[in-house]
Amino acid sequence: AIRKFENSEFVLSRKQGDFTMFGKHFLGVLKPNFAGTWFELFDYGYEPGQMTNLPKGFLPRQRHMQTIDYDSNFFAEKPRSFRVTLYDKNPKQTDVDKVTHKFENLPPKYNEQRGCYTLNFFGRVQKASARNFQLKRSVESGDEDNEEFMLSHGKCSSNNFNLDYRAPFTPFGAFAISLTAIGKKRAVG
């Protein structure tokens, strides 16, 4: 992935160094809002309204894959809190996104002995970081007692993170969530 400016969109590619929009390695874009609290992931297709008079079948229409919504936390006075919404990957050419799954980060628990917030990463994480998190199904999805996490992101060493995930997350979607966690955001500490 590449990002030209601190708060610009990420361009995702299958091949390192090849970030040509609509090239053979182009995967999609991750677009933030100005504050960096809201990100939308789109696949490789064309953006409706941007290109007109394309030959039929030339490029598929861009699909909205997921959103990542962070709570504003400018002064970092509390642990990060955010939600992820996944959308139907095969919409029937409608302008309405069909939500398929909702997730939220597992809130860390305060550890009195260490004097900080912690999560159990079962040996997969070696460094404390505000960018460490685990995602679980949202209360809105009906699994109120579900504390089992579906995606885990944690720091191993300087500039190295582990990213573990399972279905319904895809490598593309999980990597996009990771990018939002490590990328700079104006209103999230």
Structure write-up:
With 189 residues, this protein is mainly beta. The protein has one helix at residues 171-182, and strands at residues 2-3, 10-13, 26-32, 38-43, 64-70, 82-87, 99-105, 109-111, 116-118, 133-137, 149-157, 160-165. Strands 1-2-3-4-5-6-7-10-11-12 form a ten-stranded antiparallel β-sheet, with helices on one face. A hairpin with a 2-residue loop joins β11 and β12. The longest helix has 12 residues, at 171-182.
Neighbour order of strands in the largest sheet:
1-2-3-4-5-6-7-10-11-12
Tally of separate helices: 1
Nearest-integer average pLDDT = 81
Which strand-content bin applies to the residues? 25-35%
Cα gyration radius (Å) = 18 Å
Q: What's the count of strands? A: 12
Helix proportion: under 10%
Structural class: mainly beta
Low-confidence stretches: none
Would you list the SSEs in sequence order as H and E? EEEEEEEEEEEEH
| Through-space gap between termini | 22 Å
What shape does the CA trace take? globular
Main sheet, how many strands, which sense, barrel? 10 strands, antiparallel
Core attributes:
6% helix; single chain; ten-stranded antiparallel sheet; 1 helix; mainly beta; globular; 189 residues
Secondary-structure topology with pairs:
Elements: E1 2-3, E2 10-13, E3 26-32, E4 38-43, E5 64-70, E6 82-87, E7 99-105, E8 109-111, E9 116-118, E10 133-137, E11 149-157, E12 160-165, H1 171-182
